[in-house]
Amino acid sequence: MEITGAQILFQSLKKEHVDLIFGYPGGAVIDLYDELSRHPDIKHILVRHEQTAVHAADGYARATGKVGCCLVTSGPGATNTVTGIATAYCDSIPLVVFTGQVPCKLIGNDAFQEVDIVGITRPCTKHNFLVKDVRQLAKVIRQAFHIARSGRPGPVLVDLPKDVMLQKTEFNWPKKIPMRSYNPTSDPNPNHLHLAMKYLREAKCPVLFAGGGVIASDASQHLSALAKDLRLPVVATLMGLGAFPAHEELWFGMVGMHGVYVANKAVNNADVIMAVGVRFDDRVTGKLSSFAPKAKIIHIDIDPTSIRKNVRVHVPVVGTAPKALKGIHEIAFEHMRPEEWQAKHAAWLRQLASWRSEQPLDYNKKDGQNGKIIKPQAVIECLHKLTKGDAIITTEVGQNQMWTAQFYGFAKARTLLTSGGLGTMGYGFPAAIGAQLAFPGKLVVDVAGDGSIQMNIQELATAVCHKLPIKILILNNAYLGMVRQWQELFYERNYCSTCMEAQPDFVKLAEAYGAEGFRIERPKDLEPIMAKALRSSSTTIIDVRVAREENVYPMVPAGAGLDEMLLV
Questions:
Q1: What pTM was estimated for this model as a whole?
Q2: Residue 482 annotated among the catalytic residues of the structure
Q3: 371 and 329: one domain?
Q4: Radius of gyration for the alpha carbons in the chain, expressed in angstroms and rounded
Q5: Is 204 part of the annotated catalytic residue set?
Q6: Per-residue model confidence as pLDDT tens digits over 315-365
């Protein structure tokens, strides 16, 4: 029996086990929305802006490990997805984004709401498709989901001309995915695993360095087991937070521009670094010429183009993180007994503990203790205390993001959802919507700044409409805080265009949307009011007025090495 392209789309989504899709309708996809109404088993979330449809699908994907999915119309609807697609691309998040397109015969004729979204997104998608033949539609969708989730994950765009959605053909779901040019390597080379273990056996000052790839590949348990059995100290990038429990003895914190003192010292003094799912981007390495000068680097990554891209690598291991870590773990005891590994790095671990005691992650608590002002770091510590670390935390971008990374203490993978590579303001709230829909029973908190939350504040309507009990915790310093910090430190306090004093009353704004609002202005009110707000069953804004010119430390200035940290 022949069915329309629109029907094939939703039958294909069911084959891919999609039960949730974010979107915004328009003329080019009106036929798809007409068909969607006949598929109640696929829940559609109407967002208030196409960018947030992608961010919400991204948050859903990060929280669950599944492929996120969204649907938007052509022209401006499609172009509004670009920031979300680029956000997912930079952080290797599996998405399939469906965009409407004008009929095939009008493509290239400057038709109403026509845009070459395939050309526009080519640099920031893992792959994209323009479907001009309805007979190819099912095959393309099968390939899109396969590409999105396999190898190094990423976003895939499928552009759907309006006439193709109305054409009819038989629905044939491919059992196999023939893609001769796309065959990512999953099994690491055994010789490289043995060479990696040789370096680890010889190391006196090793570091196990976790990136977002550990979380994306669900390799956290393998990483933890290896670290504990071999007594390897663990550090992580921002995207790797949660890959190893922050309360464990072997955890030494985040590396990079706002990494902790001991983690940056560990990297710069290590003789062997085993990096897993790490991109070695500039925010992590600082000045490349002085990065890890003593270390032989073992780099495990599913993407061979990421290896040696930024730093010199001595042992390249191409394959999935779980298989590589498991393989290295299995050969660890061929030449050394477990008790030898347990004692091997005792002196190095003592040195790391000494550095941690010498410069602990801290801040000036005096003003807060005097009852004068609320320190933003104290807000994050209070959030961790009240949630006991058992929450999904999303963040916006800027100081709020860094204080959360430093002071929350993530114990599990997929509990921090943040825009790392692109640094997208406005990401956190729609990502929280995606995460809350994925886990209705979990506490989901978006830690925001007063600037970034206004990027996508309209999604309060989406959260309230779907009765999502998301908590938006605003660290309100009435500045674009991170830019202001740079202006203070490097531009002689020329605070040009960073003051945000002309802002809405966030409590009244919450109420206008039908949400709850709380304001906290005194240190003594921080814990009781936050506790009450977190217990709310409604979408809730918590507006915390924090110290206006508090800075994020440690900080490695741009172009400096990790050993040139500015401290508190």
A1: 0.97
A2: yes
A3: no
A4: 24
A5: no
A6: 999 999 999 999 999 999 998 999 999 999 999 999 999 999 999 999 988
